[in-house]
Design a protein that fits this description.
- This protein has a domain of 41 residues.
- Helix content is 38%, strand content 15%.
- The longest helix has 13 residues.
- The two termini are 14 Å apart.
Length: 66
């Protein structure tokens, strides 16, 4: 497993993953583009945020956020 700090280049994948996960069961959240952009930028731009992502063995596979 490859663990690393998330960077600005990960933003698009993070946004897609977040939307996919939280718009479906069991949460069924209703995010629009503007709300999600503001929320994600708040997480990414916060110097105190511990945003981590992993990919499978040797950095392959889907992005998983922590």
């Amino acid at each position: 497993m490859n663990v690393r700090i998330l960077e600005k280049d990960d933003y698009k994948k993070m946004k897609e993953l977040f939307f996919d996960v939280f718009s479906n069961e069991p949460w069924f959240d209703q995010w629009n583009e503007e709300q999600l952009d503001l929320y994600m930028k708040d997480l990414m731009d916060n110097n105190n945020s511990l945003s981590w992502g992993t990919r499978g063995y040797k950095g392959t596979g889907p992005l998983i956020l922590y």
